[in-house]
Design a protein that fits this description.
It is built from ten helices and 15 strands. The protein is α/β, with parallel strands linked by helices. The chain folds into two domains: 192 residues, no CATH class; 113 residues, no CATH class. Strands 1, 2, 3, 4, 5, 6 and 7 form a seven-stranded mixed sheet that branches. Strand 13 and strand 14 form a beta hairpin. Helix 3 runs parallel beside helix 6 and helix 6 crosses helix 9. The longest helix has 16 residues.
């Protein structure tokens, strides 16, 4: 009954978005024309500023609430709270709130002769939105790297209701944890405070910050070594030597949970981290410092797995 209420409410608001970026900040008015993507207009900025942002968590996150409570302190643009997804219906008639909820976009293939559609992939994201009548007005989107195993489960689930329920109760996303959320919220809050958006597909370099990377260790998560064959869907692990063959600077492998702890540590202000996100056929790899500043980002469509060529592109910026 709990998830039935949540799902019915989510259908009540017509979802209006496009865009496929690890982080997209900006208002998108409809599904056919990208308006303001990467830009946020002053009236919309003021609405977000006045609203209390509610980030919803599910059963699977309950054990980490202390970490998430610490993580949301990095968001300084507006008031912010956490709440259980079961409580989403209570905000139906309330004003003065913006929301961040998990959502999906299914990817289908059409049979060339039969014309039948088959779900082939799924993209999971954290959707930031304001209520506008019966619609959701997007002001940001954060793409999530759902585990390879959970992607296969989600594809097999029959309908949207079951998929959303699974996201909140069982699924794992490599970049959904307190430390990662702290980093993302810091970046988003800083951008909004400066009155700036961030466009999807935007490659980005900050030479003033990158200059120090060559003299420091680049930490990266262990999941970045796993590769997935697009056709067979077989998972294999590349070696650290293979991945960093074209990156001649210091780097260090960390377990994902250890990297998450590093990002959550308030004393960690000078470290550098490599984040890799695969969302469907969209690939992003970024370098942040632990202050939440973005040094480098690359977006590639129809691209899978992190490889030595990607690290070579980062190294080229340090030459």
């Amino acid at each position: 009954m709990r998830f039935k209420i949540i799902y019915c409410l989510s259908l009540l608001f017509a979802l209006s978005f496009t865009g496929f970026a690890q982080i997209n900040i900006g208002t998108i008015k409809n599904t056919t024309k990208r308006t303001g993507n990467g830009e946020i207009k002053t009236p919309d900025l003021k609405k977000v500023k006045r609203a209390t942002l509610v980030i919803f968590y599910g059963d699977k996150d309950s054990a980490h609430l202390a970490g998430f409570t610490e993580a949301i302190k990095s968001w300084t643009f507006s008031p912010i709270i956490l709440d259980d997804i079961a409580n989403l219906p209570k905000y139906d008639r309330k004003r003065g709130f913006s929301f961040a909820t998990l959502d999906i976009q299914t990817v289908t293939q059409v049979h060339p002769s039969l014309g039948t559609k088959t779900e082939s992939d799924i993209k999971v994201f954290l959707h930031f939105w304001l209520k506008k009548g019966k619609e959701k007005k997007t002001f940001a989107r954060l793409d999530l790297f759902t585990s390879h195993e959970d992607v296969e489960v989600l594809i097999k689930l029959k309908n949207r209701k079951e998929k959303i329920n699974y996201l909140y109760s069982k699924s794992t996303a490599y970049n959904w944890s307190p430390g990662f959320l702290k980093l993302y919220l810091q970046f988003m809050s800083d951008q909004l405070s400066a009155g700036q958006g961030f466009a999807h597909k935007e490659d980005y370099e900050n030479p003033d910050l990158l200059i120090d990377l060559s003299n420091n260790i680049l930490f990266y998560p262990d999941y970045a070594l796993t590769t997935k064959d697009k056709l067979s869907k077989e998972l294999t692990d590349q070696t650290e030597e293979e991945l960093f063959d074209k990156y001649p600077y210091d780097h260090e492998l960390m377990l994902t949970e250890d990297l998450d702890a590093l990002l959550l540590d308030p004393e960690a202000g000078g470290d550098y981290v490599l984040l890799y996100v695969q969302c469907g056929d969209d690939k992003y790899y970024s370098v942040y410092n632990t202050n939440g500043q973005l040094l480098f980002q690359k977006y590639e469509v129809n691209s899978y797995n992190l490889d030595k060529g990607d690290l070579k592109k980062i190294a080229k910026e340090l030459d």
